[in-house]
Write a structure and sequence with these properties.
Helix 11 links the parallel strand 6 and strand 7. Helices cover 47% and strands 13% of the residues. The protein is built from 12 helices and 7 strands. The protein is globular and about 50 Å long. The protein has 212 residues and is α/β, with parallel strands linked by helices. The strands form 2 sheets. The chain has a 5-stranded parallel β-sheet with strand order 5-4-3-6-7, sandwiched between helices. A two-stranded antiparallel ribbon has the order 1-2.
């Protein structure tokens, strides 16, 4: 079949009769299944969500498109959290505690790539954690590549994100139509934007639903 694959033959009925050259996987909530960092902060250190919410709903969103720097913004926020350690210690705890992957998804990616389907991570990430995903979690070898909001300059609720993806994967050596790209994500707003760009989509609610 070349770079196309009826994925049903290798994995599940989700892909029956559908042909894809490219599959885009969401990071947190799909490939990564660790308990959310904010929940771990509450459980392990007793820092309430109310203390963290202004940061995550404000400066952190700007960090994802490099309009702000995570280390600098955390240094401003941590006094109100009551965090006793350094910014680097918090970032290390954050990235490592949120690094549990779903082995079923990992195996799926490996199977698809071995069959010639290109697999990419499509994720809203600021630069520090994006680098951690690439090098420490070895996503740079698990996937054919990573598409991050930090590198693209916009997030997945912006059509420009998917325009960048399409221009990257549609090459003279491997011409690809938007309809030959499957985008899976756990946020409906991202799914709707991808649809407007002509991508096939799946709203991810869990592996069983994805693979049944």
């Amino acid at each position: 079949m070349g770079s196309e694959l009826n994925i049903w033959n290798r994995t599940s009925s989700l892909f029956t009769h559908l042909m894809f050259k490219v599959v885009l996987f969401d990071a947190d909530g799909m490939v990564i299944v660790a308990v959310r960092f904010s929940e771990q902060m509450q459980t392990k250190y007793g820092i309430p969500w109310e203390a963290m919410e202004p940061f995550f709903e404000g400066p952190f969103q700007r960090c994802k498109t490099t309009q702000a720097d995570l280390r600098e913004e955390l240094s401003k926020a941590l006094p109100s959290w009551g965090w006793k350690g350094t910014v680097d210690e918090l970032m290390d705890f954050w990235f490592r505690s949120a690094s549990v992957t779903d082995p079923r998804i990992v195996k799926l990616v490996q199977n698809l790539r071995s069959a010639g389907v290109r697999c990419y991570l499509a994720t809203n990430q600021e630069p520090y954690r994006a680098a951690f995903l690439r090098t420490q979690m070895h996503f740079d070898t698990l996937f054919d590549g990573l598409f991050t909001s930090a590198e693209i300059g916009c997030m997945k609720n912006d059509p420009a994100f998917f325009d960048h993806v399409y221009k990257t994967v549609n090459t003279p050596d491997n011409p690809t139509q938007p309809s030959e790209i499957l985008f899976a994500d756990d946020r409906a707003e991202n799914i709707e934007v991808a649809k407007t760009c002509g991508f096939q989509t799946h709203l991810y609610t869990g592996f069983e639903a994805f693979a049944s």
